[in-house]
From TrEMBL:
InterPro entries found in the cross-reference section: MBL_superfamily_lactonases (IPR051013), Metallo-B-lactamas (IPR001279), RibonucZ/Hydroxyglut_hydro (IPR036866)
Pfam families reported for this sequence: Lactamase_B
SUPFAM superfamilies, per database record: Metallo-hydrolase/oxidoreductase
Keyword Metal-binding among record annotations: yes
Protein name (Swiss-Prot/TrEMBL): MBL fold metallo-hydrolase
Catalytic activity: 3',5'-cyclic CMP + H2O = CMP + H(+); 3',5'-cyclic UMP + H2O = UMP + H(+)
Keyword Hydrolase attached: yes
Organism of derivation: Paenibacillus profundus
Metallo-beta-lactamase domain segment(s): 40-275
Family: Belongs to the metallo-beta-lactamase superfamily.
Length: 296
């Protein structure tokens, strides 16, 4: 394991949203409202000084509707209403920013739920970084079990395995310096201290968060280790009823607690959960005009 490390190479970071789903808020956080609220599927567009365009997750794409048109995957669509149109996909939005999908070299996947891998087929030249422990359990699952695990295999591109760089085998494991306690170790994804992957399992096995720094600000993109800023800031768990969709409830609770402690110790480090509306409003350009996508 390498020396105590901190994030030392800056990247450019744009947080963006590709679609959203709705859920009753009271299920997702203790004390939440009974109303149905919007959960944006954010992703990160990163420009690395040496490696070019890198994505962290992709949000939804319209393929979700095709992939959930028959049983048992249709149950996914019934329990999770999803809203996305072509103009809102990661590929379309990047193209509008002058980044053709072919230019995306690397996609880091936090985990394999459809709201994170929904757009990966749109990036034909990307190689994929993820924790082996996130993907291996899904590979031999029945369609029913995969649906329950939030995984729709047809969202992955052909030759996914050949284009993959499982992090445990490809990247150096490092000790983090004490500024990230109680998180103590991670993976130096590109070998230059620019993007550090942190195992935040619980919501899904092998779930990966990212530490990185852009324009002097340090970020921890924590994926679904918390569903909102309020959840880690005030340490509020979801309702116990959602235990059945968490892969490992004990790990989930542990990592939410770690995020809470880290936030208390270093409030200046921005912890961003993928589905946090408040973070979206603050950091995603144009987020106020989103929300009018058609329902599938
Ligand atoms: Zn998610």
């Amino acid at each position: 394991m390498g020396d105590n490390l901190e994030v030392r190479t800056e990247v450019q970071l744009n947080l963006m949203t590709a679609g959203y789903c709705t859920h009753r808020e009271w299920l997702t956080i203790q004390g939440g409202s009974f109303g149905s609220v919007r959960f944006p599927a954010m992703f990160a567009y990163i420009e690395h000084p040496r490696l070019g365009t890198v994505l962290f997750d992709t949000g939804y794409s319209e393929r979700f509707f095709q992939a959930t048109s028959a049983f048992p995957a249709k149950l996914y669509r019934w329990t999770t209403p999803v809203y996305i149109c072509e103009e809102e996909t990661a590929a379309h939005q990047l193209r509008a920013l002058g980044v053709p999908p072919e230019r995306v070299q690397k996609i880091i996947l936090s985990h394999f739920h459809a709201d994170h891998i929904g757009g990966v087929r749109d990036f034909p030249n990307a190689e994929f970084y993820y924790l082996r422990t996130a993907y291996r359990p899904l590979q031999d699952m029945s369609t029913f079990r995969a649906t329950k695990a939030g995984f729709l295999p047809e969202l992955l591109p052909d030759r996914f395995g050949e284009r993959s760089l499982p992090i445990e085998e490809t990247c150096s494991k490092i000790s983090l310096n004490e500024g990230y306690a109680p998180f103590t170790e991670g993976y130096d994804l590109f070998g230059d201290g620019s993007v550090i992957g942190i195992d935040v399992s619980g919501h899904a096995p092998g779930q990966l968060g990212l530490l990185l720094r852009a324009t002097g600000q340090e970020y921890f993109l924590c994926a679904d280790a918390a569903w909102s800023t309020a959840a880690y800031a005030s340490h509020r768990l979801p309702k116990p009823i959602v235990k059945w969709i968490k892969a490992d409830w004990r790990q989930y609770k542990d990592n939410l607690h770690r995020l809470h402690v880290l936030h208390r110790q270093r409030p200046e480090l921005l912890i961003i959960p993928t589905h946090c509306r408040e973070a979206e409003q603050r950091y995603v350009l144009g987020s106020e005009i989103k929300g009018d996508a058609r329902r599938g």
